[in-house]
Q: What sequence folds into this?
């Protein structure tokens, strides 16, 4: 198997390059891309990437595999390799720190911008706040986000304006709190999103939906935020 | 050496998982200058993988539920070497801690009346074991750890400790009086080495499941805090107690929650027999994890395993129906399809006991301060050092942890450590600064790797260590195998001390991290081996074929492993709960 | 990334609504014209000048046409502003990106202004 990997170590390299590495794959076993990376790293320990849980819940190993963003640990090689070839690159649109590691500060800045925490101006009761199963169901498809960054780095609007457009991941979080029956800051949250960039740079091309490794739908959440904005503004 | 950059804090937390974030929140809210060092972005911490829930008597499913019943279950589950004062504290403070999480926004699943949904988990009972199965585990579908960790991080975004994300703590800094005054850490992105000084240092670094070849733990669970403590000469407690979770997906090692059995799933052997009925007639598949794991291994060893190699059993869920599986166990469906290539809606999942949790760790007081023993065997608090969560051994889990108690442990004792530090700092802490030579000592290991020019590879040595632990210190243990394992580990200690780090780059050098982690794995593995060999009885997760009975006369106590002279001492278990009658040791039956 | 935001609009919401409303106007206007030509040119005999003047000269059609011209201008301005802030960035155009974008937007503004002025003149000067 030929694997072409984006390599760049600012300590050593003048410029990034795609470097070919080859690897014998075991017969009859479909490895995940992360398994493949681990084997490559045994060959060349200087290969750098993030990884941790290796089961698709921690969100560390978002990378670009043959042009498609995804989590290396839950993507079978057979699903992304084309004619025995696989090109691995860092998530697009963010500054590269080294090899497959990107600087995610812009991504997390946008996440923090939506005030991703519950705001409730009432003093909490002695027990839990009550919430019906139906109200709780509104959060399904929202709270599961693992902040891997696959969606936002697949989004041209985020590439062009990463400092102003919140991006699909941040907006999914924004809606997660707008949709929470326990949150009382809906009006302020909406006001913060009303400018021409934060939400409205989404052009609905659904790249985010296409790549989300958890099967979530940020575009739909953004549509719902728009709906709430229209209702509040008119 | 060049002058070290220095940062100073009131409270420093090493580890950004559930315990670390809860402690950080407590400190930040009290107005102290607090920092969290985390080698990954905090929401990547392994707490995120916890699935089934957080066990706590909030009396939602059963209005009569009582924290004392939870305490009874936990003491029994621990095979009576859990400290009863600590368990009492955890079970009684638990509801408050869980409600706090809910107020922070944790998206718990709900009952029809709008309260937090609770599901049955293993080892749970009503009325001190006399009232049948309880349902006490508060759940957010089967993603409770994810929901909990993200909620705590969100609260910290709001509340505000300083986050040193993607920093790696290398070693503790000790002053000449033996007090801990901070850590030496690497900023991973730049390779910069920094002296992070603090009046109190909390080790909340989680477990070390990666000492085994087959584990549900994340790749980064390498026992960094325990390794640091051992290198600093501090003891670890009950480190021989490793939980093997009954349901890791065969071959992949990925966890399938006990909640599957809580919701009504059960295990079958190759004859389709629900074999747990034979081993635990009352609790069946919801017996303690140690009991279920051993039963599974016996089934496999006696030739009733499934698959071509007969090396696993099956977890059957299809009878629960697609609707229940989709709403209660959506994450399990996803994991099974990805890693076992089976759809639980139609087929059973191949599972095998897999290393899951370190019951032992750094011994601490109930409020988090780390302990050692003086020459007369009396407890002695370690100045400046605290521990919480899986890295700590407070001890609420004893010889076997109950499912759902780990998340509760994190938040209750993370909070407790934060409260205690706040109090201590307010009362005033004065101690000597670390000297140049103290700092030098804490950097020695890093320098060793950076200066290495030849030697064996980190990856190969790690694999050998993991295979040794798997072969000699698994579910069943014998003197002979353990002796052999200890010899191999001794050899590995020398070889790892001479291993080679080829990549010396300063930019995001993950090879260097893996080398430093290997040192930590070795410390934990070695301590495990010595303590396991020393405890000549079977208790909880520690099952010896050559000493099959529990020996309360000699071993109703904690083991305490001292690294400097590789000695195993004994420490008394606490049998003095403050507000309830003591729970006397009994035969443990499910 | 763009460093200077030059939206005439006050809020993204207003832009968003104007964009959609103007699109609806333009769609209706297009339909209206299409049906006029289909109905009056049903047998392929062509439409003469008189018919055109009659159609566009009616008071309601003048108003509708003017609205369509304004909608085109608004729609075009918002769209081109969006395109400009997406693509005319330092990454492609270096340090002068802002100046270039300003020039582009001034150019767009000028063109749209001429278009509106010319459109208004045209429709209100028709013999009625």
A:
């Amino acid at each position: 198997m030929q694997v072409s990997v984006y390599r760049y170590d600012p300590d050593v390299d003048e410029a990034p390059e795609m470097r070919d590495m080859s690897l014998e794959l075991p017969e009859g076993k479909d490895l995940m891309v992360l398994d493949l990376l681990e084997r490559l790293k045994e060959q060349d320990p200087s290969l750098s990437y993030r990884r941790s849980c290796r089961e698709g819940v921690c969100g560390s190993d978002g990378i670009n595999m043959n042009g498609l963003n995804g989590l290396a640990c839950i993507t079978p090689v057979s699903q992304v390799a084309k004619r025995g070839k696989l090109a691995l690159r860092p998530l697009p649109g963010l500054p590269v720190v080294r090899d497959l590691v990107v600087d995610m500060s812009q991504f997390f800045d946008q996440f923090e911008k939506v005030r991703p925490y519950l705001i409730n101006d009432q003093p909490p009761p002695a027990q839990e706040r009550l919430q019906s199963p139906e109200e709780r169901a509104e959060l399904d498809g929202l709270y599961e986000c693992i902040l891997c960054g696959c969606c936002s780095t697949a989004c041209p609007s985020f590439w062009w304006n990463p400092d102003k457009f919140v991006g699909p991941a941040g907006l999914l979080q924004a809606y997660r709190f707008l949709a929470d029956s326990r949150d009382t800051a809906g009006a302020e949250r909406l006001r913060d999103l009303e400018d021409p960039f934060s939400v409205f740079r989404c052009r609905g091309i659904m790249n985010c939906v296409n790549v989300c490794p958890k099967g979530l739908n940020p575009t739909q959440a953004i549509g719902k935020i728009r709906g709430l904005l229209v209702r509040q503004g008119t | 050496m060049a002058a070290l950059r220095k940062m100073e804090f009131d409270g420093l937390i090493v580890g950004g998982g559930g315990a670390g974030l809860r402690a950080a929140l407590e400190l930040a809210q009290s107005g102290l200058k607090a920092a969290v060092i985390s080698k990954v972005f905090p929401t990547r911490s392994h707490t995120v993988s916890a699935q089934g829930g957080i066990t706590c008597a909030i009396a939602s499913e059963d209005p009569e539920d009582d924290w004392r019943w939870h305490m009874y279950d936990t003491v029994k589950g621990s095979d009576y070497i859990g400290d009863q004062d600590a368990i009492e504290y955890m079970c009684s403070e638990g509801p408050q801690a869980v409600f706090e999480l809910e107020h922070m926004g944790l998206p718990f699943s709900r009952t029809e009346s709008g309260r937090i949904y609770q599901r049955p988990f293993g080892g749970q009972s009503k009325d001190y074991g006399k009232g049948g199965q309880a349902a006490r585990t508060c759940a957010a579908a089967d993603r409770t750890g994810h929901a909990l960790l993200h909620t705590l991080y969100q609260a910290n975004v709001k509340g505000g400790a300083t986050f040193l994300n993607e920093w790696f703590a290398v070693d503790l800094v000790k002053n000449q009086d033996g007090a801990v005054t901070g850590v030496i850490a690497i900023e991973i992105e730049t390779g910069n080495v920094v002296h992070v000084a603090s009046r109190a240092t909390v080790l909340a670094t989680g477990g070390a499941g990666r000492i085994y070849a087959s584990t549900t733990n994340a790749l980064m669970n390498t026992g960094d805090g325990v390794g640091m403590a051992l290198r600093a000469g501090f003891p670890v407690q009950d480190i021989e107690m490793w939980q093997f979770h009954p349901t890791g997906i065969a071959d992949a090692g990925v966890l399938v929650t006990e909640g599957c059995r809580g919701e009504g799933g059960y295990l079958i052997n190759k004859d389709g027999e629900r074999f747990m009925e034979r081993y635990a007639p009352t609790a069946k598949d919801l017996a303690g994890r140690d009991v279920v794991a051993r039963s599974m291994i016996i089934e496999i060893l006696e030739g009733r395993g499934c698959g071509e190699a007969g090396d696993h059993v099956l977890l059957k869920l299809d009878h629960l129906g697609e609707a229940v599986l989709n709403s209660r166990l959506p994450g399990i469906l996803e994991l099974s399809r990805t890693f076992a290539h089976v759809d639980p809606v139609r087929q059973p999942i191949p599972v095998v006991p897999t290393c899951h949790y370190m019951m032992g760790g750094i011994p601490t007081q109930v409020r988090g301060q780390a302990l050692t023993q003086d020459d007369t065997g009396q407890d002695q608090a370690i100045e400046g050092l605290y521990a919480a969560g899986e890295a700590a051994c407070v001890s609420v889990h004893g010889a076997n942890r109950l499912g759902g108690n780990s998340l509760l442990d994190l938040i209750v004792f993370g909070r407790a450590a934060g409260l205690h530090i706040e109090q201590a700092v307010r009362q005033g802490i004065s101690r000597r600064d670390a000297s140049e030579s103290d700092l030098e000592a804490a950097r020695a290991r890093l320098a060793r790797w950076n200066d290495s020019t030849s030697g064996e590879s980190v990856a190969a040595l790690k694999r050998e260590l993991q295979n040794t632990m798997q072969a000699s210190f698994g579910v069943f243990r014998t003197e002979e195998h353990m002796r052999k394992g200890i010899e191999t580990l001794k050899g590995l200690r020398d070889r790892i001390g001479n291993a080679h780090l080829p990549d010396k780059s300063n930019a995001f050098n993950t090879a260097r991290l893996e080398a430093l982690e290997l040192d930590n794995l070795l410390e934990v593995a070695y301590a495990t081996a010595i303590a396991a060999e020393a405890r000549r009885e079977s208790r909880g997760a520690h099952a010896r074929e050559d000493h099959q009975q529990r020996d309360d006369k000699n071993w109703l106590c904690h083991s305490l492993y001292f690294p400097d002279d590789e000695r195993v001492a004994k420490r008394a278990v606490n049998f003095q709960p403050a507000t309830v009658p003591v729970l006397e040791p009994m035969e443990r039956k499910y | 990334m763009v460093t200077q935001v030059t939206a005439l609009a006050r809020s993204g919401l207003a832009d968003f609504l104007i964009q959609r409303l103007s699109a609806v106007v333009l769609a209706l206007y297009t339909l209206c014209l299409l049906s006029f030509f289909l109905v009056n040119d049903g047998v392929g005999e062509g439409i003469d000048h008189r018919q055109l003047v009659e159609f566009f000269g009616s008071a309601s059609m003048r108003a509708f046409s003017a609205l369509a011209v304004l909608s085109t201008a608004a729609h075009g301005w918002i769209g081109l502003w969006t395109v400009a802030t997406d693509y005319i960035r330092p990454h492609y155009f270096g340090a002068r990106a802002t100046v270039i974008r300003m020039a582009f937007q001034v150019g767009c503004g000028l063109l749209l202004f001429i278009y509106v002025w010319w459109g208004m003149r045209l429709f209100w000067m028709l013999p009625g």
Remarks:
- Residues 52 and 60 of chain A are 6 Å apart (CA to CA).
- The longest strand of chain A covers residues 2-7.
